């Protein structure tokens, strides 16, 4: 009902009915008002008919739905509409003029479209441009040259090394070579274990089995163990000293300098 053609036919019907009622003319404002009113009534009849149809679990309205809508909305039945049509005088309404359809510009095609195969019916639209569905690889195989492979490997090693250095810098202590700017020229702080020789001194099951086999020789080695304990005490004292980074030490003077 929103199209201009249907609206024009509705306005002609309103003009004929008003002329039969005795009016000689009608203003454009009154014609538009009556057109909107009749259009609203017709839309309401269609909406109510669809509602009755859906309540009855159907998808398309039937004559019963339209009749029930007319009774509830307008107040008359379909028989009243038929009687009015039979007893009313003949009316002539000019058919609306045909509008020229706007021609749509042709879409640009790439390549020659292929004909439809024998198993596709002729009434279906033609196939699209070949470039839209034909597979065209756009990648290239990696180079296998020695120089290229070696360059990529060196770049990968350098990237992984830099990533590891950044991770260690963020997770461990650092020392700065420049005292003015603590974020430049960072060195990873080296913290050697206090007892680096403990892993070598810990006993394992294999050692215990060897000791059980060599029990007679244990007495002869007791004196040597006492001397080793003294040496271990001295090494513990030396390992307790803080580790000194040689890169952070002040420069040493040459012996021949005054």
Descriptive notes:
- This protein has 258 residues and is mainly alpha-helical.
- Among the domains are: 4-87, Histone, subunit A, CATH 1.10.20; 147-214 and 232-248, no CATH class.
- The chain is 48% helix and 2% strand.
- The chain has helices spanning 4-20, 28-55, 63-73, 78-87, 146-171, 198-201, 205-213, 222-239; strands at 174-176, 186-188.
- The longest helix is centred in the N-terminal third of the chain and has 28 residues, at 28-55.
- It is elongated and about 135 Å long.
- It starts with a helix and ends in a 19-residue tail after the last helix.
- Residues 217-221 have low confidence and may be disordered.
Biggest beta sheet summary: 2 strands, antiparallel
Series of H and E elements: HHHHHEEHHH
What structural category arises from helix and sheet content? Answer: mainly alpha
* Number of helical regions: 8
Keywords:
Histone, subunit A; 258 residues; 2 strands; elongated; mainly alpha
Question: TL;DR?
Answer:
The protein has 258 residues and is mainly α. Helices cover 48% and strands 2% of the residues.
SSE blueprint:
Blueprint: H1 4-20, H2 28-55, H3 63-73, H4 78-87, H5 146-171, E1 174-176, E2 186-188, H6 198-201, H7 205-213, H8 222-239
Antiparallel strand pairs: 1-2
């Amino acid at each position: 009902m929103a199209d201009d053609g249907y609206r024009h036919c509705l306005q002609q019907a309103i003009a004929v009915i008003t002329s039969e009622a005795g009016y000689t003319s009608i203003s454009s404002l009154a014609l538009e008002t009556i057109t909107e009113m009749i259009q609203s009534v017709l839309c309401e009849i269609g909406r109510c008919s669809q509602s009755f149809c859906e309540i009855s679990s159907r998808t398309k309205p039937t004559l019963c739905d339209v009749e029930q809508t007319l009774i509830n909305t307008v107040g008359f039945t379909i028989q009243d509409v038929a009687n009015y049509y039979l007893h009313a005088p003949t009316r002539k309404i000019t058919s609306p003029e045909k509008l020229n359809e706007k021609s749509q510009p042709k879409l640009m095609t790439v390549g020659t479209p292929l004909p439809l195969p024998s198993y596709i019916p002729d009434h279906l639209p033609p196939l699209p441009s070949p470039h839209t569905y034909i597979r065209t690889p756009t990648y290239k195989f990696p180079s296998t040259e020695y120089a290229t492979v070696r360059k990529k490997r060196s770049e990968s090693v350098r990237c992984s090394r830099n990533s590891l250095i950044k991770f260690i810098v963020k997770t461990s202590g650092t020392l700065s070579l420049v005292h003015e700017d603590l974020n430049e020229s960072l060195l990873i702080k080296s913290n050697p274990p206090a007892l680096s020789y403990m892993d070598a001194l810990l006993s394992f099951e294999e050692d215990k089995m060897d000791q059980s086999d060599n029990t007679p020789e244990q007495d002869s080695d007791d004196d040597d163990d006492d001397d080793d304990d003294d040496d271990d005490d001295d090494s513990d004292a030396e390992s307790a000293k803080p580790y000194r980074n040689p890169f952070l030490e002040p420069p040493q003077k040459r012996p021949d300098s005054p």
